[in-house]
Amino acid sequence: MSISTALIPAQAAARLDEYTVIDVRTPGEYAAGHLPGAHNIPLDHLHAALPALKSAAARSNLLIVCASGNRSTTACAELAAADIPATTLTGGTTAWAGEGHTLHRPENARAPWPMERQVRLAAGTLVVLGLAVGNRWRPARWLSAAIGGGLVFSAATNTCGMAAALAKLPHNQPRTTDLDAVMRALQN
Q1: Buried b (16+ CB within 10 A) or exposed e, 117-128
Q2: Cα atoms in the Cβ-side hemisphere of radius 13 Å centred on 135
């Protein structure tokens, strides 16, 4: 089993040409901006891409990237279990952009709001709706309580069911995602 490592954005930027960059975010998040040269393999498709990733890892180091570093850490653990060495970008694209490094966007790609912003909008809307409707029909306040409880659970477990659900919406899916083409590029 391989051991994964981590790099901070400044380290990754200085050595980016040594890595094959794999972005494990959703296609919509990837379209909003990704590290230069990154290949998009969403986390839920990682298992299917293991042979291509093993081939790519034989030629160069893999740098696994997501928005904050959580999904990339999960991906690195899955890769380590398959004996594929990988490095995660600490803080993800958020930290990368926060340090002033360039994010690339596909040509003609529409960029949806970042997932965190979508979650804040959806959660806030549901809380306000629960409170507003709760003025006339008291049980509707339970909607606000449920959303608040979900946010607490999300923070405690470092997961987000609302983000997973929002990621499946059509506006978070780019029109042209070709996972087979990415896997072919990684194997060559």
Answers
A1: ebbeeebeebbe
A2: 5
∠ at Cα 155 (149, 160), nearest 5°?
A: 80
Taking residues 64-92, report their average pLDDT.
95
Q: Let me know: does 92 contact 68? Beta carbons within 8 Å.
A: yes
Per DSSP, 173 falls in state S
Report which of residues 109 and 72 the model is more confident about.
72
122 contacts 166 by C-beta, under 8 angstroms: yes
Measured between alpha carbons, how far is 179 from 34 in angstroms, rounded to an integer? 16
Q: Determine phi and psi for 39, rounding to 5 degrees.
A: -105, 135
Residues 62 and 72 sit within 8 Å (Cβ to Cβ) = no
Q: Contact at 8 Å (CB) between 72 and 24?
A: yes
The answer, as to whether pTM is greater than 0.70, is no
Q: Kindly list the distances between the CA atom of residue 51 and the CA atoms of 15, 59, 67, 117, 177, in Å, as whole numbers in the listed order.
A: 25, 13, 24, 34, 19
In 3D, which of 48, 22, 33, 66 has the Cα closest to residue 163? Answer: 66
